[in-house]
Sequence to fold (307 residues):
Amino acid sequence: MMIIEAKSINKKYQDHVALKHIDISIKRGSIYGLLGPNGAGKTSLIRIFTQITQADSGTILFNQETLQSKHIFEMGYLPEERGLYKKMLVGEQLLYFAELKGLSNKEAKLRLKYWIDKFEIKDWLGKKVEELSKGMQQKIQFIATVLHEPKLIILDEPFSGFDPINSQILVDEILLLKDKGATIVFSTHRMDSVELLCDHIALINKAEKILDGPVNDIKQQYKSNQFEIIYTGSALVSDELIEVNYTKEKNGQHTTVLSLQNLISTNRLVQHILNNPIDIKGFREKLPSMEEIFIMAVQQKNNFKNA
Fold:
């Protein structure tokens, strides 16, 4: 079941085309990545989802209903441009945002207690936002986004400003929210930051969707039959079945990346390699990163347009 479906969405700002014939379907309970460079159109699409702006044409369904103002109470949105009031006390601000999303003051305080303990922010509740570090402000903004327990959580560049430790804390919370039934949408130009989290991704470039699908399927689609082998013994060399792309050696241990000259099974490849006087320590198929896939998809799109 889809929680949100966008059909043929178009958006233009004066002479700038922000979105062109965008079709996207986001499955309930999934983690969905909107990936692409800055200015690609990701934030424009999010602002249409959250009803900050409207599409020039196209339709959007939320839980199989035409998107309406009532649906905003079922969404949580963490914008790239953070929206905290710098002079307002942290505790008052969190309660204020929760009540805006329909919670009573009593219910908001009850839910806030969970996050106070979770993120250890009790000592910060009586401080102004401007007194907080950037990372702490990020935590407060995240709590404000999820405090009303929305069904759809949209995070625009969520890891911006976070150090590795706090980034991991956020990742853990996102996975926990998914386990509790929330749908998470990431928008980012840092494709590596959500690659391992997302079930499904859409790549957007210059206002157009150029790729869409489950992460594992896309990686398989763009794989180049490369394998990485870690071993000791004599360095592998190219032959009738394998082409050695490069080999690195350190402390007597080789790491070789090779391509197949012919389409053979993985078992056949391992048997062939073991004909050499080596001791295998590690073996894996080398799948392309999402950034590499994005570059290939853009090149294919450009070649198609120029054909």
Notes: The mean pLDDT is 91. DSSP finds eight helices and 14 strands in the chain.
